[in-house]
Amino acid sequence: MARPQKTLLCIDDYQSSLNLCKIVLEDFGYKVSTASSAREGLEIFASHVSDAVILDYQMPEMNGELVAAEMRRTKPRVPILMLSGWLPLPESALQLVDEFVAKGDPVEFMLLAIQRGLSRGEKRKPVRPVDRRREPKRWA
């Protein structure tokens, strides 16, 4: 029995990067949705099923860290792969994503990162908010 086709959402403000991402990933059997802005990406993410997200860090209206934080809040099990030509990225951004690939790395790096993210995403448990009632009391 064939495995169901995985759907990826690519978000990047550069249309040429989106086109390349879509072509390459479709050649490897993925179904790909694209968004050319952070806001459009969040709208698609909220209203459609995505098995994983490929997200650019540097975007004009909202950076990838803010987008990833919103995605984690609403659908914490969906793996997020961050792409960037800006290095190094803030540690706070890297903590929100499952994988990071530098723009300009070989395509194989991105494909492996997607596979790792998808395999971990299936096992991920949702993040639970801290229960302040169960927090240990602090002594003065």
How many domains comprise the coordinates? 1
How large is the share of residues in beta strands?
15-25%
Structural class: alpha/beta
CATH superfamily: Response regulator
Q: Quick one: overall form?
A: globular
Percent range of helical residues: 25-40%
Mean pLDDT: 86
What's the level 1 CATH class? Answer: Alpha Beta
**Strand segment count:** 5
The helix tally amounts to: 5
Topology at a glance:
Blueprint: E1 7-11, H1 15-27, E2 31-35, H2 38-47, E3 52-56, H3 64-74, E4 80-84, H4 91-94, E5 99-102, H5 107-121
Parallel strand pairs: 1-2, 1-3, 3-4, 4-5
Describe the model.
This protein has 140 residues and is of the alpha/beta class. The chain has a single domain, classed as 3-Layer(aba) Sandwich (Rossmann fold), CATH 3.40.50.2300. It contains five helices and five strands. The chain has a five-stranded parallel β-sheet with strand order 2-1-3-4-5, sandwiched between helices. Helix 2 packs parallel to helix 3. The longest helix is centred in the last third of the chain and has 15 residues, at 107-121. The model is unreliable at 126-140 (pLDDT under 50).
